[in-house]
Amino acid sequence: MTRSPRTVLTGALTLVAAAAFSGTVLPARSLGLPAVEPITPALASLAQAMAKASGSFRMAEAPVSGGFSISEQGGKTVLTLSGDFKTNDMAPDLWVAFSPSATPLAMSKAPAFPLKPGSYTLLSKLKSSKGGQSYVIPASIDLKAQKSVLIWCQKFNATMAWAPLKP
Asked: Distance of CA 73 to CAs 115, 116, 156, Å?
């Protein structure tokens, strides 16, 4: 049985799209194509467009750049920091946390913007002070009750950055 080039192309594009949405990496040789670099910016834009929530970080105690998105990936809810994320690399003990306040710094004072006990929910230790990174959000964290994402130094109770959660 011979297949038309259009049928083969449609099948290949469907396979690539399904792999992209599931997070699967397909070697180019499995599709009979030459090896190419991944299209990371395009996939990042697609993930951002499909996000349940997203935001851009704002400075608290330290300069910050980048943002985050929250999306469903493989049946799990995942918070992903953007590739251009960067915060203070000298701060020890940095954590990603959620706050039920849309304006978490209003409950605090400069320059450290300390958090009051019970005013936040820890997600995970920050993997790196810069670059894209992902964190699975456990079902025990009620995202509907959270209004912002924080980058927080637990050792000195200092908020480095924050971002409102926007659907």
From this structure: 30, 32, 33
